[in-house]
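note to self: dont lose this again. the chain is below, predicted strucutre after it. 73 aa total, dont forget to put it in the shared folder this time
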Amino acid sequence: MIKGIVDRFEKDIVVVEIKNGDDTQDFPRSIFPKDIEVGHVVYIDGDKVRIDREETENLEREIKELMDDVWED
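---
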């Protein structure tokens, strides 16, 4: 099973940043749920993809907090 974050879409390909953040891997868009978005945390097992919505929300919250700290007056 591969854990990653959706990085971008290129035609019929979904580019996923793999857990360590150093690598990306391309997957056919057809295996992903229709509501997939950039930034979603996903688990990929063969041709099955599951969006981890809770972890995605946690990641979004963490990024927002970091950005708020950077841009704080």
